Structures are given as C-alpha cells and as structure tokens.
Amino acid sequence: MGADHSRAAPPTPPGVRRILIVTVVPLFLATLVAALVLWPRDAPRPEAGDDLPRYHGTVTRVVTEPCPPNPAVPEGTPTTAGGPCGTVTVRVQDGPDAGQHVDAPIPAGPGAPSVSVDDDVILVSLIDPEDPAISTYNIAEHQRGMPLIWLGVLFAAAIVAFGRLRGLAALAGLAASFAILLTFVLPGISAGQPPLIVAIVGAALIMFVVLYLTHGVSAQTSVAVLGTLGALVLTGLLGLAATNATHLTGFGSEDATTLSMFRGDVDLHGLLLAGIIIGSLGVLDDVTVTQAAAVTELAHANPNLSRRELYRSATRVGRAHIASVVNTIVLAYAGASLPLLLLLTADSRALGQIVTSEFLAQEIVRSVVATLGLIAAVPLTTALATVVTTAGRRRTGANAAPGAPDDVAVAQPRPATDRAETLQALSTPRPRHTPPATRSEWPEPDRSTDTPW
Q: Where are the annotated segments for Disordered (predicted)?
C-alpha cells in the first residue's frame, strides 16, 4: 500500500526527531496494548457441518441428451429449467476411486458450471440414505487452485521486478495486513468485541507495520503515520455520527442478513463502521505518504519557501490527488455493488424511496464518510510535514540572521569577489544587443498551478 517515494529526505534536526519519537512510540505502544487486550482468546470455532467428501477429477467425455419431460409442467409451457441433460465421465484423481472413471450428470441450474473435456473439476460423493453402500458423484465446481497460484506468482513477480527491494517490502506488508485481518480483526469481531474499536486498533496496527516496513523508519514516514492515524479516528467518528443520523442498522445486504442467522451476537451496525475503516485505510496511507513526500520534495527544490508558501504549494498537489481518489472510491464501491445497482434499475418504486432505502443509503454513507476522511487527511498531513520539514532549519544554518522568524528563509551572503575582477568587469564595455535575462525565480507562492478551464 501507499506510493513509492524512494529519494532520501534531508536530515531531520535532532530536536524534531526526538519530538516524533516521543509522539509516535507511545501511540505504537498504546496500539499494541489495545490489541493485546482485545485479542480474541475465545473466538467461536466453526460448527462441524455435514460436509460432503470432495475429490479432484478430470473430465474425459461429455454426452448430452434431450431432457425428459417434466410431468409437473403442462405441455407447451416454455421453461428454461431442467437443462442441459446428459452424462459427464470424469477420471477421479484422489479418494477411494482414484484412477477410475465415474459418471456424473451434467451440472444444471442457476450458477451451475459449464464443463467440457479436459476440465479439472471437483466431485462430491452422495451416499444413498437407504443403502449406504451405494454412492453417486456430482460435479460441484471447477478446480481454481492452479490458476490462482499462477496469478499470485505473476502478481509477486511484477511487483518485485518493478519495485525491487521496495517491492519485496510491499509484499511483506501485504502479508502482514492479511495476517492481522485474519488473526485479530475478524476473530475479534466474531468473539463479540466492539467492531468499531477492533477495526480502528487493527487498522492502526496494519498502518504501523506496513508504512514503516515499506517506506522505512524516517521523519517523513512518521508524519504519514500521524496523518493516517488522525484521519482514521476522524473517519470512525464521522461514520458513527452518519450511521446514527441515518438510522442504519447494518442489515442492508443479503450477506449481513445471512450472517445474523449464523452469528446472532455480531453487532452488524458496528460491522458496517468497521468496513468503512478498513476500506479507507488503503487509500488513506497513499494520500498521507504522497503529501509528506510532496512537502519534502518542494522544500528540497526551493529551500527559500516559507512555511506558508510550502503549505500552499503542497496543498495544491493534495487537491489534484483528492480529485482523482474520490472518483476511485466511488467507482470501487460501485464496482463491488453492480448486482445491487442492476437490481435497482428493475425496481418500480419511486427514486426517493430507492435512495433512502437501507441497502442504498448504506453505500452512500460509506462513500461519503470515506471521502471526508481522505479530505481531512490532506491538510492534517501537509501541516505536520511542513512543520517537521522547516523546523530547526534556521538553527542549522551558520548565517541565520538574529531575530529572523522561523518560517522565513535567510538568504545566503554573496561570496567575496576579487578587486581586480571587479575593476575589469566595470571597465569592459557592454554589448549593444544584450539578450533579455531569463527569469529563474520560483513562481509566486499565491499563483495557482491548476490549468484553467
């Protein structure tokens, strides 16, 4: 997660480093303590169900045939159910019938897999309740393990080839993120802990590990950590206020309703807030790291910028970033909810009723709260980065003017010039046609760099 800004930042004054250490280290320790307190020690285990035996196999033959008439449907009634019909021959790869060829009916019905010769499939064994010695095979789905492995290898290879050591660090951060989600956040919510608190602690833990692992231990990374943590807390508070104001219960999706049947003790309202926090983290750290790096690069390019000028210049970068990220968030939520949006197009209710319904209002609140948290992260991180970047720079200069403000750069004195060189320059006649001097000053601090419409 996050952007890559690999150029080393200028050295931070020792006093500023001490302030960052005193600020960041207690926050990290508090996160660890909160994680230990909330760590799920008695998370409910999945109930043992009547799972059918599953075996791997390869399709060797497919024979289709006309479907027999359904006596429950009158003749002449058009129907799409019941087909296709026929038999699939599968060579079993494991289990008691390994190496043998077995027959199974062609999968039919909504969502049934479409099989052909040489397809790798998963078989389930069905035992006749009247005669346990008789068993039949059905095709459940395709095998997806090998394609997923190759996709994962391609994903890792592309990241390492482009990012090199930084790419390896990013992969390690991704593995750490999933480890925290699978061992702390999800079991903690399943154990009945407050989902909002678990999500904030888990997101903070992910943030500390991923940012420092990916971008290194530096003042710039510490600024991004503080900005991300502040934006996360603000996002959680905004989400709590928005869901309470709109009276959302968390039952806005079929998945939430199904979860309530299996885990009735899970707080679905808190689970909605936890989803907003976790979903915002990936974009938040990208914005904060970019803003911290932008301030550092601007200060490095023009050390004469004052704090106000540096803040304004970096904020213009943040505005452009936020304008694109907002669209990214909305499209990400829309892409994940395409079946829901298609269902809305077939709804005959009035538009006002559709928009204010639970399942659509939930998506609106999620997008708006995440966007507000991102917008707040830009000025917060930019201000912190500006203070850290400019703090102590007058104390490090040997030519600082006494009494000069901390946010005003002092120009360096001109180097001494030899007297003979000066007399020679004054006595040399000026050429008649002198080309105009090229202006090389930094642009006006208040001038906008945005392209006009």
A: 63-83, 396-453
